[in-house]
Amino acid sequence: LSDFKGSDELKDIIRLVISDTDKIKEQSEKLEEKLEESTIKIEGLQTNLNNARLESRTDALTNIGNRKFFEEKISEYMNNFEKIGHDLCLILCDIDYFKKFNDNFGHQIGDQVLKVVAHVIKKELGFMGSAARYGGEEFAILLPKAKLADGIKLAENIRSIISQRVIRNKTTRANFGRITMSFGVASIHRGLKAEDLIQRADSALYLSKSSGRNMVQSELELDQIVSGQNSISA
Questions:
Q1: Interval 81-93: pLDDT, tens
Q2: Phi and psi at residue 60, in whole multiples of 5°?
Q3: What is the pTM assigned to this prediction?
Q4: What whole-number distance in Å separates Cα of residue 176 and Cα of residue 63?
Q5: Do residues 201 and 92 make contact, with C-beta atoms less than 8 angstroms apart?
Q6: Is the separation of the CB atoms in 65 and 131 below 8 Å?
Q7: Coil, strand or helix: which one is 118?
Q8: From 82, 137, 156, 221, active-site residue
């Protein structure tokens, strides 16, 4: 470049270009660092958001879903039924004479009973569906893609396992009694809304309670009662 006229000006231009290129490179590296920091912060915020969302839908005592979780899931499964035609079965279950545990032995024993029930439900349900503490001593189990017979079978299995559990004091080994539960099972049909499904399962649960408790009743028994009443009326 030194052998022709104007080489000094060209050198100055080249030096300027190199200097500007170095500055751009430095700025680019700083931007990349800031972008990486921002990405890490966003991922952290997303993780915190997901954890908060999960926590807001989890029952703190039993560590399964709460009422809000149940409402979201039944809405999701109902949409799948309406759009795709997937089956849906609902089990509502209630701890028999739960009040006696609280009244006779204190709320700590009552809490222990709830934890035991939730653990059994979660274990037996596995990945077949979703479970939630519906309220107080009542639990709800949603079984997507399941027939009524599948729900009855699972309910009977949980009932049998629960009925064999005895609550004892870990220190003194004092016996606080057996746990029993009553179950109501219903399945979705065309024309039914979510509240209709809940009502049918709840009516079946009430039938279990009124028939002696510690049993599984379903919409089949409800339909038989209605059919019998219609026959008498006729």
A1: 988 888 999 999 9
A2: -65, -35
A3: 0.77
A4: 23
A5: yes
A6: yes
A7: helix
A8: 137
